[in-house]
Amino acid sequence: MMKLTNREKQLVMVLGFVLIGAIYFQFIIKPQSSKLEILETKAVELRDKVNQVNLQISSNNQLNENYKTLHGKTSLLTQKFFNRIQQENHILLINRLLKDSGLSYRVVSYSDQSISEIMKSEGLSNDENYPLNQLVQAYQKSEVKINQEGSREQQIDEKQQNQSPQVELNQQQSNEKAVEKMEANITVEGSYEQILSFIRKVEAQEKKIIIERLTISSGEDEGLIGNISLAFYGIPKLLNTMDNNLHWNTDQTHGKVNPFYEGMSLNNLDNPSKTDDSTITDRNHDFIMTVKPISSDLPTVTLGRAFDNTLESYVYADNQGLEKVDFMIVQKDDKYFFKYRTQRDTYPKDYEENMVEFLPKGKTIVFKVLSKGRNGDADQNGVELTIDNKSDRLLEVKVLGDSASRPRIITANQSGRISIVRSQGE
After folding, report:
1. Which pLDDT value is given to residue 276?
2. Is 60 left (phi over 0), alpha (psi -120 to 50) or beta?
3. What secondary structure letter does DSSP report for 111?
4. For a disulfide at 374, which of 1, 201, 278, 379, Cβ 3.0-4.6 Å?
Protein backbone atom coordinates (compact mmCIF):
# COMPACT_ATOMS: atom_id res chain seq x y z
CA MET A 1 0.00 0.00 0.00
CA MET A 2 1.34 3.31 -1.05
CA LYS A 3 1.96 5.86 1.65
CA LEU A 4 0.83 9.48 1.20
CA THR A 5 3.23 12.18 1.97
CA ASN A 6 2.24 15.04 4.25
CA ARG A 7 1.83 17.33 1.29
CA GLU A 8 -0.48 14.86 -0.42
CA LYS A 9 -2.49 14.46 2.76
CA GLN A 10 -2.92 18.21 2.93
CA LEU A 11 -4.05 18.30 -0.68
CA VAL A 12 -6.57 15.53 -0.04
CA MET A 13 -7.92 17.42 2.96
CA VAL A 14 -8.21 20.61 0.94
CA LEU A 15 -10.00 18.68 -1.80
CA GLY A 16 -12.39 17.25 0.78
CA PHE A 17 -13.19 20.69 2.12
CA VAL A 18 -13.76 21.96 -1.41
CA LEU A 19 -16.12 19.09 -2.16
CA ILE A 20 -18.02 19.63 1.08
CA GLY A 21 -18.25 23.37 0.34
CA ALA A 22 -19.44 22.70 -3.22
CA ILE A 23 -22.11 20.28 -1.99
CA TYR A 24 -23.20 22.70 0.77
CA PHE A 25 -23.42 25.58 -1.69
CA GLN A 26 -25.23 23.54 -4.35
CA PHE A 27 -27.84 21.93 -2.14
CA ILE A 28 -28.22 24.38 0.78
CA ILE A 29 -26.97 27.92 0.07
CA LYS A 30 -28.17 28.17 -3.54
CA PRO A 31 -31.77 27.05 -2.83
CA GLN A 32 -31.86 29.32 0.23
CA SER A 33 -30.50 32.19 -1.85
CA SER A 34 -33.25 31.66 -4.42
CA LYS A 35 -35.84 31.62 -1.65
CA LEU A 36 -34.29 34.79 -0.19
CA GLU A 37 -34.60 36.56 -3.54
CA ILE A 38 -38.24 35.48 -3.77
CA LEU A 39 -38.89 36.70 -0.22
CA GLU A 40 -37.16 40.00 -0.94
CA THR A 41 -39.35 40.45 -4.00
CA LYS A 42 -42.45 39.68 -1.91
CA ALA A 43 -41.22 42.04 0.79
CA VAL A 44 -40.93 44.84 -1.78
CA GLU A 45 -44.45 44.08 -3.01
CA LEU A 46 -45.80 44.03 0.53
CA ARG A 47 -44.04 47.30 1.35
CA ASP A 48 -45.71 48.83 -1.70
CA LYS A 49 -49.06 47.51 -0.53
CA VAL A 50 -48.44 48.85 2.98
CA ASN A 51 -47.63 52.26 1.52
CA GLN A 52 -50.80 52.14 -0.57
CA VAL A 53 -52.86 51.15 2.46
CA ASN A 54 -51.28 53.93 4.52
CA LEU A 55 -52.10 56.41 1.77
CA GLN A 56 -55.64 55.09 1.66
CA ILE A 57 -55.94 55.28 5.46
CA SER A 58 -54.59 58.81 5.38
CA SER A 59 -57.08 59.69 2.66
CA ASN A 60 -59.91 58.03 4.59
CA ASN A 61 -58.90 59.87 7.76
CA GLN A 62 -58.92 63.15 5.84
CA LEU A 63 -62.30 62.30 4.30
CA ASN A 64 -63.66 61.34 7.72
CA GLU A 65 -62.34 64.57 9.23
CA ASN A 66 -63.86 66.60 6.40
CA TYR A 67 -67.16 64.72 6.79
CA LYS A 68 -67.28 65.37 10.53
CA THR A 69 -66.44 69.04 10.00
CA LEU A 70 -69.19 69.43 7.40
CA HIS A 71 -71.57 67.51 9.64
CA GLY A 72 -70.70 69.85 12.49
CA LYS A 73 -71.33 72.91 10.34
CA THR A 74 -74.63 71.47 9.12
CA SER A 75 -75.73 70.66 12.66
CA LEU A 76 -74.90 74.17 13.82
CA LEU A 77 -76.79 75.71 10.90
CA THR A 78 -79.92 73.60 11.41
CA GLN A 79 -80.00 73.40 15.21
CA LYS A 80 -82.12 76.56 15.45
CA PHE A 81 -84.93 74.95 13.46
CA PHE A 82 -87.38 72.24 14.44
CA ASN A 83 -86.54 68.73 13.30
CA ARG A 84 -90.13 67.81 12.53
CA ILE A 85 -93.45 69.58 12.66
CA GLN A 86 -95.53 67.77 15.31
CA GLN A 87 -98.74 69.68 15.87
CA GLU A 88 -99.46 68.25 19.34
CA ASN A 89 -96.14 69.40 20.74
CA HIS A 90 -96.36 72.84 19.14
CA ILE A 91 -99.81 73.32 20.69
CA LEU A 92 -98.31 72.62 24.11
CA LEU A 93 -95.42 74.99 23.39
CA ILE A 94 -97.76 77.87 22.46
CA ASN A 95 -99.92 77.14 25.49
CA ARG A 96 -96.89 77.49 27.76
CA LEU A 97 -95.73 80.73 26.10
CA LEU A 98 -99.19 82.26 26.55
CA LYS A 99 -99.29 81.24 30.20
CA ASP A 100 -95.78 82.48 30.93
CA SER A 101 -96.54 85.89 29.42
CA GLY A 102 -99.86 86.18 31.31
CA LEU A 103 -101.96 86.58 28.17
CA SER A 104 -105.46 85.19 27.85
CA TYR A 105 -106.62 84.04 24.45
CA ARG A 106 -109.92 84.16 22.62
CA VAL A 107 -109.16 82.05 19.58
CA VAL A 108 -106.30 79.75 18.68
CA SER A 109 -106.37 78.04 15.29
CA TYR A 110 -103.74 75.81 13.69
CA SER A 111 -103.20 75.08 10.03
CA ASP A 112 -102.52 71.59 8.77
CA GLN A 113 -98.92 70.61 8.27
CA SER A 114 -97.87 71.52 4.75
CA ILE A 115 -94.85 71.59 2.51
CA SER A 116 -93.90 75.18 1.91
CA GLU A 117 -91.00 77.26 0.72
CA ILE A 118 -88.94 79.62 2.82
CA MET A 119 -89.57 82.26 0.17
CA LYS A 120 -93.08 81.81 -1.15
CA SER A 121 -93.75 80.61 -4.67
CA GLU A 122 -96.59 78.82 -6.35
CA GLY A 123 -96.88 75.24 -7.42
CA LEU A 124 -95.65 73.38 -4.32
CA SER A 125 -97.60 70.27 -3.37
CA ASN A 126 -97.87 68.67 0.07
CA ASP A 127 -96.04 65.55 -1.09
CA GLU A 128 -93.83 64.31 1.78
CA ASN A 129 -91.16 63.30 -0.73
CA TYR A 130 -89.73 66.80 -1.08
CA PRO A 131 -85.93 66.88 -1.70
CA LEU A 132 -84.73 67.46 1.88
CA ASN A 133 -86.90 64.64 3.18
CA GLN A 134 -85.81 62.35 0.33
CA LEU A 135 -82.17 62.94 1.22
CA VAL A 136 -82.81 62.19 4.89
CA GLN A 137 -84.76 59.01 4.11
CA ALA A 138 -82.06 57.77 1.75
CA TYR A 139 -79.38 58.49 4.38
CA GLN A 140 -81.28 56.85 7.23
CA LYS A 141 -81.83 53.66 5.23
CA SER A 142 -78.07 53.19 5.01
CA GLU A 143 -76.61 51.24 7.93
CA VAL A 144 -73.00 51.73 8.93
CA LYS A 145 -71.41 48.71 10.56
CA ILE A 146 -68.15 48.98 12.51
CA ASN A 147 -66.23 45.69 12.57
CA GLN A 148 -63.77 44.51 15.23
CA GLU A 149 -60.81 46.13 13.44
CA GLY A 150 -62.53 49.49 13.64
CA SER A 151 -63.20 49.78 9.91
CA ARG A 152 -66.57 50.89 8.63
CA GLU A 153 -68.55 49.03 6.04
CA GLN A 154 -71.69 50.50 4.60
CA GLN A 155 -74.47 47.94 4.35
CA ILE A 156 -77.60 48.96 2.49
CA ASP A 157 -80.56 46.63 2.40
CA GLU A 158 -81.38 46.01 -1.27
CA LYS A 159 -85.09 46.02 -0.71
CA GLN A 160 -84.98 49.32 1.12
CA GLN A 161 -82.62 50.70 -1.49
CA ASN A 162 -85.04 49.79 -4.27
CA GLN A 163 -87.94 51.28 -2.36
CA SER A 164 -86.16 54.44 -1.17
CA PRO A 165 -86.96 57.62 -3.11
CA GLN A 166 -84.22 58.89 -5.37
CA VAL A 167 -83.15 62.49 -5.10
CA GLU A 168 -83.54 64.09 -8.50
CA LEU A 169 -80.71 66.49 -9.18
CA ASN A 170 -82.77 68.34 -11.73
CA GLN A 171 -85.44 69.41 -9.25
CA GLN A 172 -86.71 72.91 -9.78
CA GLN A 173 -85.01 75.51 -7.62
CA SER A 174 -88.23 76.29 -5.78
CA ASN A 175 -88.74 72.65 -4.77
CA GLU A 176 -85.19 72.44 -3.44
CA LYS A 177 -86.12 75.10 -0.88
CA ALA A 178 -89.22 73.28 0.32
CA VAL A 179 -89.57 72.56 4.04
CA GLU A 180 -92.33 71.52 6.42
CA LYS A 181 -94.49 74.33 7.78
CA MET A 182 -97.36 74.86 10.22
CA GLU A 183 -99.07 78.13 11.13
CA ALA A 184 -100.85 79.14 14.32
CA ASN A 185 -103.23 82.13 14.41
CA ILE A 186 -103.91 83.45 17.90
CA THR A 187 -106.21 86.16 19.18
CA VAL A 188 -105.06 87.30 22.61
CA GLU A 189 -106.13 89.77 25.26
CA GLY A 190 -103.82 91.53 27.69
CA SER A 191 -101.73 94.55 28.41
CA TYR A 192 -99.08 96.04 26.17
CA GLU A 193 -96.37 94.70 28.48
CA GLN A 194 -97.85 91.18 28.34
CA ILE A 195 -97.93 91.21 24.53
CA LEU A 196 -94.30 92.40 24.47
CA SER A 197 -93.42 89.65 26.97
CA PHE A 198 -94.99 87.05 24.67
CA ILE A 199 -93.00 88.38 21.69
CA ARG A 200 -89.75 88.30 23.67
CA LYS A 201 -90.39 84.73 24.81
CA VAL A 202 -91.06 83.67 21.20
CA GLU A 203 -87.84 85.34 20.07
CA ALA A 204 -85.86 83.76 22.94
CA GLN A 205 -86.82 80.19 22.01
CA GLU A 206 -83.96 77.90 21.07
CA LYS A 207 -85.85 76.87 17.93
CA LYS A 208 -86.90 79.57 15.50
CA ILE A 209 -90.55 80.60 15.56
CA ILE A 210 -91.40 83.23 12.95
CA ILE A 211 -93.91 85.97 13.79
CA GLU A 212 -95.39 86.50 10.33
CA ARG A 213 -98.15 88.94 11.22
CA LEU A 214 -99.04 91.02 14.28
CA THR A 215 -101.90 93.46 14.67
CA ILE A 216 -102.86 95.20 17.92
CA SER A 217 -106.11 97.06 18.61
CA SER A 218 -107.81 98.57 21.64
CA GLY A 219 -109.86 96.24 23.80
CA GLU A 220 -112.06 96.67 26.83
CA ASP A 221 -110.94 99.06 29.55
CA GLU A 222 -107.18 99.57 29.13
CA GLY A 223 -106.55 96.17 27.62
CA LEU A 224 -105.43 95.36 24.09
CA ILE A 225 -106.45 92.71 21.57
CA GLY A 226 -103.69 91.19 19.49
CA ASN A 227 -103.89 88.98 16.41
CA ILE A 228 -100.67 87.02 16.07
CA SER A 229 -99.69 84.64 13.28
CA LEU A 230 -96.81 82.27 14.09
CA ALA A 231 -95.02 80.03 11.60
CA PHE A 232 -93.09 76.86 12.50
CA TYR A 233 -90.60 75.51 9.96
CA GLY A 234 -89.21 71.97 10.12
CA ILE A 235 -85.86 71.01 8.60
CA PRO A 236 -85.27 67.23 8.87
CA LYS A 237 -81.93 66.15 10.33
CA LEU A 238 -79.73 63.43 8.87
CA LEU A 239 -79.58 61.73 12.26
CA ASN A 240 -82.68 60.69 14.20
CA THR A 241 -82.71 63.41 16.82
CA MET A 242 -85.56 64.84 18.82
CA ASP A 243 -85.96 68.56 19.43
CA ASN A 244 -84.85 69.25 22.99
CA ASN A 245 -87.73 71.56 23.75
CA LEU A 246 -90.32 69.07 22.52
CA HIS A 247 -89.59 66.17 24.90
CA TRP A 248 -93.17 65.99 26.14
CA ASN A 249 -95.31 62.95 26.52
CA THR A 250 -98.44 63.81 24.54
CA ASP A 251 -100.14 60.63 25.75
CA GLN A 252 -100.54 62.14 29.20
CA THR A 253 -103.29 64.57 30.13
CA HIS A 254 -102.35 68.23 29.78
CA GLY A 255 -104.18 71.55 30.11
CA LYS A 256 -107.55 72.02 31.78
CA VAL A 257 -110.60 69.86 32.29
CA ASN A 258 -112.60 72.49 30.43
CA PRO A 259 -110.51 74.67 28.09
CA PHE A 260 -113.16 77.44 28.20
CA TYR A 261 -113.16 77.68 32.00
CA GLU A 262 -110.48 79.61 33.92
CA GLY A 263 -110.21 76.96 36.58
CA MET A 264 -107.66 74.53 38.04
CA SER A 265 -105.16 73.11 35.59
CA LEU A 266 -104.33 69.44 35.40
CA ASN A 267 -100.57 69.77 35.71
CA ASN A 268 -97.74 72.21 36.14
CA LEU A 269 -97.70 73.01 32.44
CA ASP A 270 -100.72 75.23 33.03
CA ASN A 271 -99.35 76.77 36.22
CA PRO A 272 -98.01 80.25 35.41
CA SER A 273 -96.09 80.31 38.66
CA LYS A 274 -93.78 77.58 37.32
CA THR A 275 -91.88 78.77 34.29
CA ASP A 276 -89.84 76.30 32.27
CA ASP A 277 -86.81 78.15 31.02
CA SER A 278 -85.08 75.05 29.67
CA THR A 279 -85.70 76.12 26.09
CA ILE A 280 -84.46 79.68 26.54
CA THR A 281 -80.83 79.80 25.47
CA ASP A 282 -78.21 80.95 27.95
CA ARG A 283 -76.71 84.04 26.31
CA ASN A 284 -74.27 85.07 29.02
CA HIS A 285 -71.10 83.82 27.34
CA ASP A 286 -68.90 85.30 24.63
CA PHE A 287 -67.16 82.19 23.27
CA ILE A 288 -67.97 78.50 23.23
CA MET A 289 -66.01 75.32 22.60
CA THR A 290 -67.30 71.75 22.45
CA VAL A 291 -65.00 68.77 23.00
CA LYS A 292 -66.36 65.36 21.97
CA PRO A 293 -64.99 61.80 21.84
CA ILE A 294 -63.41 60.63 18.58
CA SER A 295 -66.32 58.18 18.18
CA SER A 296 -68.72 61.10 17.71
CA ASP A 297 -70.07 61.96 14.27
CA LEU A 298 -69.04 65.56 14.97
CA PRO A 299 -65.50 66.97 15.14
CA THR A 300 -63.70 66.41 18.45
CA VAL A 301 -63.18 70.18 18.79
CA THR A 302 -65.46 73.01 17.68
CA LEU A 303 -64.59 76.56 18.76
CA GLY A 304 -66.20 79.87 17.90
CA ARG A 305 -67.97 83.01 19.02
CA ALA A 306 -71.19 82.33 20.85
CA PHE A 307 -74.34 82.67 18.74
CA ASP A 308 -72.50 83.25 15.48
CA ASN A 309 -75.25 82.23 13.07
CA THR A 310 -72.95 82.68 10.07
CA LEU A 311 -70.40 80.16 11.49
CA GLU A 312 -67.70 82.45 10.08
CA SER A 313 -65.78 82.45 13.35
CA TYR A 314 -65.88 78.68 13.92
CA VAL A 315 -62.76 76.50 13.77
CA TYR A 316 -62.62 72.72 13.95
CA ALA A 317 -60.31 69.80 14.67
CA ASP A 318 -60.64 66.03 14.73
CA ASN A 319 -57.81 64.42 16.65
CA GLN A 320 -57.52 61.01 18.32
CA GLY A 321 -55.04 62.47 20.82
CA LEU A 322 -54.58 65.86 22.47
CA GLU A 323 -55.45 68.79 20.22
CA LYS A 324 -53.47 71.95 20.93
CA VAL A 325 -55.74 75.00 21.12
CA ASP A 326 -54.53 78.58 21.58
CA PHE A 327 -56.98 81.25 22.79
CA MET A 328 -56.04 84.93 23.17
CA ILE A 329 -57.81 88.09 24.34
CA VAL A 330 -56.11 91.46 23.74
CA GLN A 331 -57.11 94.96 24.82
CA LYS A 332 -56.08 98.10 22.95
CA ASP A 333 -57.25 101.30 24.66
CA ASP A 334 -60.96 100.64 25.35
CA LYS A 335 -61.39 98.05 22.59
CA TYR A 336 -61.21 94.27 22.94
CA PHE A 337 -59.91 91.78 20.39
CA PHE A 338 -59.63 88.00 20.16
CA LYS A 339 -58.07 85.26 18.09
CA TYR A 340 -57.74 81.49 18.44
CA ARG A 341 -56.53 78.45 16.58
CA THR A 342 -56.49 74.67 16.51
CA GLN A 343 -53.88 72.55 14.76
CA ARG A 344 -56.23 72.48 11.76
CA ASP A 345 -57.82 75.95 11.55
CA THR A 346 -57.21 79.51 12.68
CA TYR A 347 -59.46 82.51 13.19
CA PRO A 348 -58.84 84.95 11.74
CA LYS A 349 -57.12 83.31 8.78
CA ASP A 350 -54.09 85.59 9.12
CA TYR A 351 -53.68 84.57 12.75
CA GLU A 352 -50.17 85.87 13.22
CA GLU A 353 -50.90 89.34 11.82
CA ASN A 354 -54.50 90.10 12.72
CA MET A 355 -57.19 89.99 15.45
CA VAL A 356 -60.97 90.44 15.55
CA GLU A 357 -62.70 93.13 17.59
CA PHE A 358 -65.63 92.20 19.84
CA LEU A 359 -67.76 93.69 22.59
CA PRO A 360 -67.89 91.61 25.81
CA LYS A 361 -71.42 90.77 26.97
CA GLY A 362 -70.71 91.55 30.61
CA LYS A 363 -68.12 92.81 33.06
CA THR A 364 -66.23 89.55 32.61
CA ILE A 365 -65.39 87.71 29.41
CA VAL A 366 -66.99 84.25 29.55
CA PHE A 367 -65.57 81.27 27.65
CA LYS A 368 -67.89 78.26 27.95
CA VAL A 369 -66.39 74.81 27.30
CA LEU A 370 -68.77 71.85 26.90
CA SER A 371 -67.01 68.52 27.39
CA LYS A 372 -68.11 64.90 27.75
CA GLY A 373 -67.01 62.03 29.99
CA ARG A 374 -64.74 59.25 28.75
CA ASN A 375 -66.22 56.23 26.94
CA GLY A 376 -63.50 53.88 28.24
CA ASP A 377 -59.76 53.34 28.48
CA ALA A 378 -59.35 53.63 24.70
CA ASP A 379 -60.93 57.08 24.73
CA GLN A 380 -57.82 59.29 24.76
CA ASN A 381 -58.66 62.48 22.87
CA GLY A 382 -58.94 65.90 24.46
CA VAL A 383 -57.68 69.48 24.36
CA GLU A 384 -54.42 71.01 25.54
CA LEU A 385 -55.52 74.60 26.07
CA THR A 386 -53.23 77.63 26.14
CA ILE A 387 -54.96 80.84 27.28
CA ASP A 388 -53.52 84.36 27.14
CA ASN A 389 -55.61 87.25 28.51
CA LYS A 390 -54.03 90.64 27.84
CA SER A 391 -57.01 92.70 28.98
CA ASP A 392 -58.21 94.37 32.16
CA ARG A 393 -61.25 92.12 32.41
CA LEU A 394 -61.42 88.72 34.05
CA LEU A 395 -61.59 85.83 31.58
CA GLU A 396 -63.87 83.20 33.12
CA VAL A 397 -63.51 79.73 31.62
CA LYS A 398 -66.51 77.53 32.49
CA VAL A 399 -65.79 73.84 31.84
CA LEU A 400 -69.00 71.81 31.95
CA GLY A 401 -69.53 68.05 31.82
CA ASP A 402 -65.85 67.07 31.93
CA SER A 403 -64.57 63.93 33.65
CA ALA A 404 -63.13 64.54 37.13
CA SER A 405 -60.70 61.59 37.05
CA ARG A 406 -59.64 61.82 33.38
CA PRO A 407 -60.47 65.31 32.14
CA ARG A 408 -60.49 66.05 28.43
CA ILE A 409 -59.62 69.70 29.00
CA ILE A 410 -56.02 70.21 30.12
CA THR A 411 -54.64 73.69 30.65
CA ALA A 412 -51.09 73.77 29.32
CA ASN A 413 -50.32 77.46 29.88
CA GLN A 414 -52.24 80.49 31.05
CA SER A 415 -51.37 84.12 31.57
CA GLY A 416 -53.33 87.15 32.69
CA ARG A 417 -56.53 87.39 34.76
CA ILE A 418 -58.10 83.96 34.26
CA SER A 419 -60.55 81.96 36.35
CA ILE A 420 -61.20 78.32 35.43
CA VAL A 421 -64.36 76.81 36.94
CA ARG A 422 -65.04 73.11 36.42
CA SER A 423 -68.43 71.47 36.81
CA GLN A 424 -69.67 67.94 36.18
CA GLY A 425 -72.81 69.22 34.51
CA GLU A 426 -74.70 72.31 33.72
Report:
1. 36
2. alpha
3. P
4. 379
CA–CA distances in Å: residue 169 to residues 67, 135, 176, 213, 381: 21, 11, 9, 35, 39
Phi, psi angles (nearest 5°) of residue 32: -65, -35
Looking at the DSSP bridge assignments, the partners of residue 189 are 104, 225
Rounded distance between C-alpha atoms, residue 54 and residue 51, angstroms? 5
How far apart, in Å, are the Cα atoms of 13 and each of 4, 5, 10, 19, 26?
A: 12, 12, 5, 10, 20
For domain 87-141+161-270, say whether CATH 3.30.70.60 is its number.
Answer: yes
Band (pLDDT 50/70/90 cuts) for residue 7 is confident
* Predicted confidence (pLDDT) at residue 184 exceeds the cutoff of 60: yes
Every domain of the chain and the residues it spans: 14-78, 87-141+161-270, 287-423
For residue 244, pLDDT over 60 is answered with no
Which string of DSSP letters, residue by residue, matches 240-271?
Answer: ----GGG---TTS--SBSSTTS---BSSGGG-
Q: How many CB atoms lie within 10 A of CB 72?
A: 23
Q: Are 407 and 371 in contact (CB under 8 A)?
A: yes
Nearest to 344 by CA among 301, 408, 385: 301
In angstroms and rounded to an integer, the radius of gyration of the C-alpha atoms of the chain is 34
E strand residue ranges, 112-240? 114-117, 142-146, 152-156, 178-190, 209-218, 224-234
Q: Among 120-124, 260-264, 287-291, 381-385, which stretch is predicted with the lowest mean pLDDT?
A: 260-264
